[in-house]
Amino acid sequence: xxxxxSGFTLIELIMVIVILGILAxxxxxxxxxxxADARRAxxxxxxxxxxxxxxxxxxxxxxxxxxxGTVTLEGASVAISNGYASAAGIVVAANITGxxxxxNTNTGDFVVTTAATTTTVQAKGATTATAxxxxxxxxxxxxxxxxxxxxxxx
Length: 154
What we know:
This protein is an alpha+beta fold. The protein is 38% helix and 23% strand. Keywords: Membrane, Transmembrane, Transmembrane helix. Pfam families: N_methyl (PF07963).
């Protein structure tokens, strides 16, 4: 009488392990770094927030009709420059929170740098100082504000 064998042979088990190893070698690098994708998506979100906030601030300015120096959006006072949010005002209007470039407390997701006519919002963890950022340039008397996104180096 022959006894019936059940289960897997050693060769079958080794082949399964080899196939799983090959799949893992190709799949792991693709899923290893989600940080860059997250920073890129965050910067795209900041760009959208700035564009919306700029349009809403412009609408509030036009609705006021008296050439105000500030408008109030959701209880916050937003400084106006040439009918649009100023460089400092866009951060308030878009409700962007972060640390300044000189602050070492490491709070917030962004490094926010505001100059006279520009505001730069950079994602923390970017590879270089000018990578993975959004730059808002305030409006002039003849040109609407510009919002430029850079997602290289995230």
